[in-house]
Amino acid sequence: MKGKVYLVGAGPGDDSLITLKGLKCIKKADVIIYDRLINNNLLKESKKNCKFIYVGKKSKKHIKTQDEINEIIYREALEGKIVVRLKGGDPYVFGRGGEEGEYLAKRNIPFEIVPGVTSAIGGLAYAGIPITHRNYASSFHVITGHLKDENDKLNWEVLASLDGTIVFLMGISNLENISKNLIENGKDKNTPVAIVSWATMPYQKVVEGNLSNIYEKAMKYNIVPPSIIVIGNVVKLRKNLNFFERKILFGETIIVTRAREQKKEFVDKLREFGATTYEFPTIKIDEITPNIELENAIENIEQYTYLLLTSVNGVNIFFKKLFSLGYDSRKLGGLKIGVIGSKTAKAMERYGIKPDFIPKEYVSEFLTKYLKNVLTTKDKVLLPRAKNSRSYLVEELSKICDVDEIKIYNTVKGTDKAEELVDFLKDKKEFYLTFTSPSTFNNFVEILGDNSQNILKRGKILSIGPVTSKVIREGGHEVYGEARKHTIEGIIDLLIKERR
Ligand code: SAH
């Protein structure tokens, strides 16, 4: 049986700039054949057993030849698989997607093209440069700058005479030639030029100049591939249209140390504000299984009057167990339900339940204070939560009524690679380290070992609240900022205030 191939454009870099159809293809792919510039986050969208084949090529140093790539795509499809050939930008813009399509067509392999946002247009947009504009350019021309033998093929005279915007892809190593040829063939040496490197990524870098000085400037600012060269008066619009680099956290680097299971929301928000984030989960959530105690509690839920859940992880693990036993949320119909924190409440609502009470502050003390006023000796509380939770809540509530504390998960040290973080921070002059609990800090120190002191000294440390700050100070480090609201929004507020 023959499979099907999708030649998918991944967009210019930022993973959210892929099309809906492209994302759907990734989700259903059995195998993904991808290039060097593909954003890793996109690969994470694939299904569990998806196979990955890297055919990335660095210019000049090809890892796989185009013939080999064609053959790989073909062979995978012959096995009846859904094959996604994921390419940067648009598959037909200097992506050799046409050749891959032809190869498949000749061999009767069904395929579809999923167009993508090309860097030639979308990448420029993120630098504040519209590829056309009524007042400045009524055409645009996208040209390969990968010249070598093709040098002769480009008609510089014609190129120099064009009025529209000229975009060179793969041109950065030929920048000197390109500007020289255009000037020699009559293009005004004052024509504005910009180089956009790593377009759409939070570390995007742009250098502006004109035909006569752009090479020098690119050298000075150490511009590297992938870069787009754009030549024309539209470059002038950048000063008004540069929305991206004006985002409030653009240019800031922020290390996120929360658990893999909890970091997404934080990272998404930081990215929305334009920050470069580095995820270094220091905590891992391990569900305790088997858990007969929890199963018994659910089977006999009628014996309880209150259910308290104190974290999003706790909610998710609890409901997973409830469902796996064949019940649904109605099983909890007879109980009063309380949570700590609005995040936990939201997680609960996803299962169709509105908590009866949510303390305003996100700590056990407030939950206890509230409950002390409503609980009577006749009540019985079910409290499924993390193994290493503070004993305070149980101690206090037990003074009033029966409390069944059931340990449902463990937070253990994350296993992230310390070397990679050290390497990432090597050249960074400024960065923030965020700690959202004492254990994120303690684990960070343990995972990084000898390197931790140096990194903690160089970085600006942001803490979620006093309990975490205390641990950081006891470790001998200065807390640069402490969130007033003890949530990730509180930390983001700190960062934003700093930039205002
Ligand atoms: N099909 C791709 C282009 C492939 S050629 C597209 O439509 O965008 C590869 C070249 O594209 C690189 O050498 C560089 O010039 C450009 N490019 C791709 N992504 C880029 C990015 N994020 N920033 C700057 N240039 C990029």
UniProtKB/TrEMBL annotation:
The entry's keywords: Methyltransferase, Porphyrin biosynthesis, S-adenosyl-L-methionine, Transferase
Q: Which InterPro entries has this protein been placed in? A: 4pyrrol_Mease (IPR000878), 4pyrrol_Methylase_sf (IPR035996), 4pyrrol_syn_uPrphyn_synt_sf (IPR036108), 4pyrrol_synth_uPrphyn_synth (IPR003754), 4pyrrole_Mease_sub1 (IPR014777), 4pyrrole_Mease_sub2 (IPR014776), CobA/CysG_C (IPR006366), Siro_Cobalamin_biosynth (IPR050161)
Q: Give the EC number(s) listed in the UniProt record.
A: 2.1.1.107
Q: What is an example of a Pfam family matching this protein?
A: TP_methylase
Q: GO: which molecular function terms?
A: uroporphyrin-III C-methyltransferase activity; uroporphyrinogen-III synthase activity
SUPFAM superfamilies referenced in this protein's UniProt entry, alphabetically: HemD-like (SSF69618), Tetrapyrrole methylase (SSF53790)
Location of the Tetrapyrrole methylase domain: 4-214
Q: Name one GO biological process term.
A: methylation
Domain Tetrapyrrole biosynthesis uroporphyrinogen III synthase, chain residue ranges per copy: 265-492
Could you list the residue ranges that cross the membrane?
A: none
Top-rank taxon of the source lineage equals Bacteria
Record's family? Belongs to the precorrin methyltransferase family.
**UniProt-listed PANTHER family:** S-ADENOSYL-L-METHIONINE-DEPENDENT UROPORPHYRINOGEN III METHYLTRANSFERASE, CHLOROPLASTIC, SIROHEME SYNTHASE-RELATED
Note the NCBIfam families from the entry: cobA_cysG_Cterm (TIGR01469), PRK06136.1 (NF004790)
The name under which this protein is listed is: uroporphyrinogen-III C-methyltransferase
Q: From which lineage does this chain's organism come?
A: Bacteria, Bacillati, Bacillota, Tissierellia, Tissierellales
